[in-house]
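Pasting as-is:
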Amino acid sequence: LFKPLRKGYEALVVEPSQVRGTIHAEAAFAMYSDRVAKAFKAWAREEAPVFSDIDAYTDAKHFIAEPARVLMERFSSLKLFDPYDVYEVLLKYWTDTMNDDLHLVVANGWEAGREIETFYKETENKKTKQIKKVETGWDGLLIPRKLIDAKFFKAESEAVAKAEAALEAAKAELEDLAASGEAQDEDSQGSEEEVLRFAACGEDPVRLRACAEEKRKSASKALKAAQKKLETLEKAKYPTLSIDEIKELVVADKWIATVHSGIDELFRSISVALTERVDELARRYARPLGEVASETAALEKSVAKRLAAMGY
Protein backbone atom coordinates (compact mmCIF):
# COMPACT_ATOMS: atom_id res chain seq x y z
CA LEU A 1 0.00 0.00 0.00
CA PHE A 2 2.85 2.43 0.80
CA LYS A 3 6.33 3.41 -0.36
CA PRO A 4 8.93 5.65 1.31
CA LEU A 5 8.48 9.33 0.48
CA ARG A 6 11.03 11.04 2.69
CA LYS A 7 12.29 10.64 6.22
CA GLY A 8 9.33 9.93 8.49
CA TYR A 9 6.80 9.90 5.64
CA GLU A 10 5.32 7.38 3.22
CA ALA A 11 3.11 7.71 0.15
CA LEU A 12 0.19 5.55 -0.98
CA VAL A 13 1.11 3.55 -4.08
CA VAL A 14 -2.46 2.73 -5.19
CA GLU A 15 -5.55 4.81 -5.84
CA PRO A 16 -7.88 5.16 -2.81
CA SER A 17 -10.51 3.14 -4.70
CA GLN A 18 -8.03 0.25 -4.94
CA VAL A 19 -7.19 0.05 -1.24
CA ARG A 20 -9.82 -2.59 -0.38
CA GLY A 21 -8.90 -4.84 -3.31
CA THR A 22 -5.19 -4.51 -2.56
CA ILE A 23 -5.69 -5.51 1.08
CA HIS A 24 -7.84 -8.53 0.24
CA ALA A 25 -5.44 -9.67 -2.50
CA GLU A 26 -2.46 -9.57 -0.14
CA ALA A 27 -1.15 -13.02 0.82
CA ALA A 28 -0.62 -11.95 4.42
CA PHE A 29 -4.27 -10.93 4.71
CA ALA A 30 -5.37 -14.30 3.33
CA MET A 31 -3.12 -16.04 5.85
CA TYR A 32 -4.66 -13.95 8.62
CA SER A 33 -8.13 -15.00 7.46
CA ASP A 34 -7.01 -18.62 7.72
CA ARG A 35 -5.76 -18.01 11.26
CA VAL A 36 -9.15 -16.56 12.21
CA ALA A 37 -10.92 -19.59 10.74
CA LYS A 38 -8.57 -22.02 12.52
CA ALA A 39 -9.01 -20.22 15.84
CA PHE A 40 -12.77 -20.58 15.66
CA LYS A 41 -12.66 -24.19 14.46
CA ALA A 42 -10.37 -25.07 17.37
CA TRP A 43 -12.83 -23.50 19.82
CA ALA A 44 -15.83 -25.22 18.19
CA ARG A 45 -14.04 -28.59 18.20
CA GLU A 46 -13.25 -28.20 21.90
CA GLU A 47 -16.67 -26.91 23.02
CA ALA A 48 -19.02 -29.03 20.87
CA PRO A 49 -18.71 -32.07 23.19
CA VAL A 50 -19.24 -29.80 26.22
CA PHE A 51 -22.44 -28.44 24.68
CA SER A 52 -23.63 -31.93 23.72
CA ASP A 53 -23.15 -33.19 27.30
CA ILE A 54 -25.69 -30.75 28.77
CA ASP A 55 -28.13 -32.61 31.02
CA ALA A 56 -30.32 -32.13 34.07
CA TYR A 57 -27.24 -31.66 36.28
CA THR A 58 -25.66 -28.88 34.20
CA ASP A 59 -25.02 -25.62 36.10
CA ALA A 60 -26.98 -23.35 33.75
CA LYS A 61 -26.16 -20.18 35.68
CA HIS A 62 -22.38 -20.40 35.23
CA PHE A 63 -22.23 -22.62 32.15
CA ILE A 64 -21.10 -20.03 29.59
CA ALA A 65 -18.14 -18.73 31.62
CA GLU A 66 -15.67 -21.44 30.55
CA PRO A 67 -16.58 -21.52 26.82
CA ALA A 68 -16.28 -17.71 26.82
CA ARG A 69 -12.86 -17.83 28.48
CA VAL A 70 -11.60 -20.39 25.96
CA LEU A 71 -12.95 -18.32 23.05
CA MET A 72 -11.12 -15.21 24.25
CA GLU A 73 -7.95 -17.25 24.69
CA ARG A 74 -8.16 -18.61 21.14
CA PHE A 75 -8.40 -15.09 19.69
CA SER A 76 -5.92 -13.39 22.03
CA SER A 77 -3.02 -13.88 19.58
CA LEU A 78 -4.91 -12.37 16.64
CA LYS A 79 -3.84 -8.76 17.04
CA LEU A 80 -6.51 -7.11 14.90
CA PHE A 81 -9.13 -8.60 17.20
CA ASP A 82 -10.00 -7.32 20.63
CA PRO A 83 -10.73 -10.55 22.58
CA TYR A 84 -13.48 -8.73 24.46
CA ASP A 85 -15.27 -8.01 21.17
CA VAL A 86 -15.23 -11.74 20.46
CA TYR A 87 -16.50 -12.36 23.98
CA GLU A 88 -19.35 -9.90 23.35
CA VAL A 89 -20.41 -11.87 20.25
CA LEU A 90 -20.85 -15.01 22.35
CA LEU A 91 -22.34 -13.18 25.33
CA LYS A 92 -24.97 -11.42 23.19
CA TYR A 93 -26.09 -14.71 21.66
CA TRP A 94 -26.08 -16.29 25.10
CA THR A 95 -28.33 -13.52 26.42
CA ASP A 96 -30.64 -13.46 23.40
CA THR A 97 -31.12 -17.17 22.72
CA MET A 98 -28.64 -19.73 23.97
CA ASN A 99 -29.37 -19.25 27.68
CA ASP A 100 -33.07 -19.99 27.14
CA ASP A 101 -32.21 -23.00 24.98
CA LEU A 102 -29.91 -24.40 27.65
CA HIS A 103 -32.54 -24.02 30.39
CA LEU A 104 -35.02 -25.80 28.12
CA VAL A 105 -32.65 -28.74 27.64
CA VAL A 106 -31.76 -28.88 31.35
CA ALA A 107 -35.45 -28.91 32.30
CA ASN A 108 -36.84 -31.20 29.57
CA GLY A 109 -33.85 -33.05 28.12
CA TRP A 110 -32.79 -33.07 24.49
CA GLU A 111 -36.26 -34.44 23.67
CA ALA A 112 -37.33 -30.78 23.71
CA GLY A 113 -35.98 -30.66 20.15
CA ARG A 114 -39.02 -32.64 19.04
CA GLU A 115 -41.47 -30.03 20.31
CA ILE A 116 -43.10 -27.25 18.29
CA GLU A 117 -44.85 -24.08 19.44
CA THR A 118 -47.84 -22.40 17.84
CA PHE A 119 -48.17 -18.62 17.74
CA TYR A 120 -51.47 -16.82 18.24
CA LYS A 121 -52.81 -13.31 18.27
CA GLU A 122 -55.93 -12.16 20.08
CA THR A 123 -58.68 -10.28 18.26
CA GLU A 124 -61.72 -8.66 19.81
CA ASN A 125 -65.18 -8.75 18.26
CA LYS A 126 -66.30 -5.11 18.27
CA LYS A 127 -69.97 -6.03 18.71
CA THR A 128 -69.79 -8.88 21.25
CA LYS A 129 -66.48 -7.84 22.85
CA GLN A 130 -65.48 -11.50 22.79
CA ILE A 131 -61.75 -12.30 22.55
CA LYS A 132 -60.76 -14.79 19.90
CA LYS A 133 -57.36 -16.43 19.49
CA VAL A 134 -56.21 -16.71 15.88
CA GLU A 135 -53.25 -18.89 14.89
CA THR A 136 -50.55 -16.88 13.11
CA GLY A 137 -47.89 -19.53 12.58
CA TRP A 138 -45.62 -22.06 14.26
CA ASP A 139 -41.98 -23.04 14.69
CA GLY A 140 -39.82 -25.53 16.51
CA LEU A 141 -39.55 -24.84 20.24
CA LEU A 142 -35.79 -25.49 20.24
CA ILE A 143 -34.97 -26.12 16.57
CA PRO A 144 -36.11 -23.54 13.98
CA ARG A 145 -37.90 -24.86 10.91
CA LYS A 146 -35.23 -23.39 8.63
CA LEU A 147 -32.64 -25.75 10.16
CA ILE A 148 -34.93 -28.74 9.58
CA ASP A 149 -35.38 -27.60 5.97
CA ALA A 150 -31.64 -27.16 5.39
CA LYS A 151 -30.82 -30.64 6.68
CA PHE A 152 -33.75 -32.74 5.50
CA PHE A 153 -35.87 -30.89 2.93
CA LYS A 154 -33.56 -28.89 0.65
CA ALA A 155 -35.44 -29.73 -2.54
CA GLU A 156 -38.82 -28.82 -1.05
CA SER A 157 -37.58 -25.54 0.45
CA GLU A 158 -35.97 -24.66 -2.90
CA ALA A 159 -39.33 -25.35 -4.57
CA VAL A 160 -40.97 -22.88 -2.19
CA ALA A 161 -38.31 -20.27 -2.97
CA LYS A 162 -38.84 -20.72 -6.72
CA ALA A 163 -42.61 -20.45 -6.29
CA GLU A 164 -42.14 -17.23 -4.30
CA ALA A 165 -39.95 -15.82 -7.07
CA ALA A 166 -42.53 -16.77 -9.71
CA LEU A 167 -45.29 -15.03 -7.75
CA GLU A 168 -43.20 -11.88 -7.35
CA ALA A 169 -42.50 -11.90 -11.10
CA ALA A 170 -46.20 -12.23 -11.85
CA LYS A 171 -47.02 -9.34 -9.52
CA ALA A 172 -44.33 -7.22 -11.15
CA GLU A 173 -45.78 -7.98 -14.59
CA LEU A 174 -49.20 -6.80 -13.44
CA GLU A 175 -47.69 -3.58 -12.11
CA ASP A 176 -45.85 -3.04 -15.40
CA LEU A 177 -49.06 -3.57 -17.34
CA ALA A 178 -50.88 -1.07 -15.15
CA ALA A 179 -48.12 1.47 -15.76
CA SER A 180 -48.00 0.80 -19.50
CA GLY A 181 -51.80 1.07 -19.64
CA GLU A 182 -51.58 4.56 -18.24
CA ALA A 183 -48.88 5.38 -20.77
CA GLN A 184 -51.03 3.97 -23.59
CA ASP A 185 -53.72 6.49 -22.72
CA GLU A 186 -51.19 9.20 -23.58
CA ASP A 187 -49.36 7.42 -26.39
CA SER A 188 -51.39 5.02 -28.53
CA GLN A 189 -48.36 3.69 -30.41
CA GLY A 190 -46.77 1.62 -27.60
CA SER A 191 -43.37 -0.05 -27.62
CA GLU A 192 -42.28 -3.13 -29.57
CA GLU A 193 -42.15 -5.06 -26.28
CA GLU A 194 -45.76 -4.16 -25.53
CA VAL A 195 -46.83 -5.26 -29.03
CA LEU A 196 -45.21 -8.67 -28.47
CA ARG A 197 -46.88 -9.01 -25.09
CA PHE A 198 -50.25 -8.12 -26.65
CA ALA A 199 -49.72 -10.85 -29.25
CA ALA A 200 -49.23 -13.47 -26.52
CA CYS A 201 -52.64 -12.88 -24.94
CA GLY A 202 -54.50 -10.94 -27.60
CA GLU A 203 -54.28 -7.34 -28.64
CA ASP A 204 -56.83 -6.07 -26.18
CA PRO A 205 -55.08 -4.46 -23.16
CA VAL A 206 -57.92 -5.63 -20.93
CA ARG A 207 -57.38 -9.21 -22.09
CA LEU A 208 -53.65 -8.84 -21.58
CA ARG A 209 -54.15 -7.75 -17.97
CA ALA A 210 -56.62 -10.59 -17.41
CA CYS A 211 -54.01 -13.00 -18.73
CA ALA A 212 -51.41 -11.61 -16.34
CA GLU A 213 -53.89 -11.83 -13.46
CA GLU A 214 -54.46 -15.51 -14.25
CA LYS A 215 -50.71 -16.01 -14.16
CA ARG A 216 -50.57 -14.35 -10.73
CA LYS A 217 -53.38 -16.56 -9.41
CA SER A 218 -51.67 -19.67 -10.76
CA ALA A 219 -48.35 -18.66 -9.17
CA SER A 220 -50.10 -17.95 -5.85
CA LYS A 221 -51.78 -21.36 -5.95
CA ALA A 222 -48.48 -23.09 -6.74
CA LEU A 223 -46.79 -21.30 -3.84
CA LYS A 224 -49.49 -22.35 -1.37
CA ALA A 225 -49.20 -25.95 -2.54
CA ALA A 226 -45.40 -25.94 -2.17
CA GLN A 227 -45.64 -24.36 1.29
CA LYS A 228 -48.28 -26.88 2.38
CA LYS A 229 -46.17 -29.80 1.21
CA LEU A 230 -43.11 -28.52 3.05
CA GLU A 231 -45.07 -27.76 6.22
CA THR A 232 -46.55 -31.27 6.24
CA LEU A 233 -43.08 -32.79 5.96
CA GLU A 234 -41.71 -30.52 8.71
CA LYS A 235 -44.46 -31.35 11.20
CA ALA A 236 -44.04 -35.05 10.52
CA LYS A 237 -40.25 -34.83 10.99
CA TYR A 238 -40.04 -33.19 14.42
CA PRO A 239 -41.44 -36.15 16.45
CA THR A 240 -39.10 -38.59 14.68
CA LEU A 241 -35.83 -36.74 15.35
CA SER A 242 -33.24 -38.87 17.14
CA ILE A 243 -31.29 -37.45 20.10
CA ASP A 244 -28.11 -37.41 17.99
CA GLU A 245 -29.90 -35.49 15.23
CA ILE A 246 -31.27 -33.02 17.77
CA LYS A 247 -27.84 -32.43 19.28
CA GLU A 248 -26.29 -31.88 15.85
CA LEU A 249 -29.04 -29.46 14.84
CA VAL A 250 -28.87 -27.48 18.09
CA VAL A 251 -25.15 -27.56 18.88
CA ALA A 252 -23.58 -27.42 15.41
CA ASP A 253 -26.24 -25.93 13.14
CA LYS A 254 -27.74 -23.44 15.61
CA TRP A 255 -25.40 -22.48 18.48
CA ILE A 256 -21.95 -22.83 16.94
CA ALA A 257 -23.06 -21.67 13.48
CA THR A 258 -24.63 -18.51 14.93
CA VAL A 259 -21.53 -17.63 16.95
CA HIS A 260 -19.43 -18.29 13.84
CA SER A 261 -21.63 -15.92 11.84
CA GLY A 262 -21.21 -13.23 14.51
CA ILE A 263 -17.42 -13.54 14.50
CA ASP A 264 -17.39 -13.47 10.68
CA GLU A 265 -19.34 -10.21 10.84
CA LEU A 266 -16.84 -8.87 13.39
CA PHE A 267 -13.97 -9.81 11.09
CA ARG A 268 -15.67 -8.06 8.16
CA SER A 269 -16.11 -4.92 10.27
CA ILE A 270 -12.39 -5.03 11.18
CA SER A 271 -11.51 -5.35 7.49
CA VAL A 272 -13.81 -2.45 6.58
CA ALA A 273 -12.38 -0.30 9.40
CA LEU A 274 -8.83 -1.02 8.20
CA THR A 275 -9.73 -0.09 4.63
CA GLU A 276 -11.58 3.06 5.69
CA ARG A 277 -8.68 4.16 7.90
CA VAL A 278 -6.18 3.86 5.05
CA ASP A 279 -8.62 5.61 2.68
CA GLU A 280 -9.10 8.41 5.24
CA LEU A 281 -5.35 8.91 5.58
CA ALA A 282 -4.91 8.87 1.80
CA ARG A 283 -7.53 11.55 1.26
CA ARG A 284 -6.45 13.66 4.23
CA TYR A 285 -2.83 13.81 3.07
CA ALA A 286 -3.41 13.65 -0.67
CA ARG A 287 -1.88 17.12 -1.04
CA PRO A 288 1.36 18.16 0.71
CA LEU A 289 1.10 20.86 3.38
CA GLY A 290 3.47 23.12 1.43
CA GLU A 291 1.20 23.01 -1.61
CA VAL A 292 -1.88 23.78 0.47
CA ALA A 293 -0.04 26.63 2.26
CA SER A 294 1.08 28.15 -1.06
CA GLU A 295 -2.43 27.99 -2.49
CA THR A 296 -3.83 29.54 0.71
CA ALA A 297 -1.32 32.38 0.55
CA ALA A 298 -2.19 33.05 -3.11
CA LEU A 299 -5.92 33.11 -2.28
CA GLU A 300 -5.32 35.46 0.66
CA LYS A 301 -3.35 37.80 -1.63
CA SER A 302 -6.13 37.73 -4.24
CA VAL A 303 -8.81 38.49 -1.61
CA ALA A 304 -6.73 41.35 -0.15
CA LYS A 305 -6.26 42.82 -3.64
CA ARG A 306 -10.02 42.71 -4.33
CA LEU A 307 -10.85 44.24 -0.94
CA ALA A 308 -8.37 47.05 -1.60
CA ALA A 309 -9.98 47.72 -4.97
CA MET A 310 -13.33 48.00 -3.18
CA GLY A 311 -11.89 50.58 -0.76
CA TYR A 312 -11.43 48.35 2.26
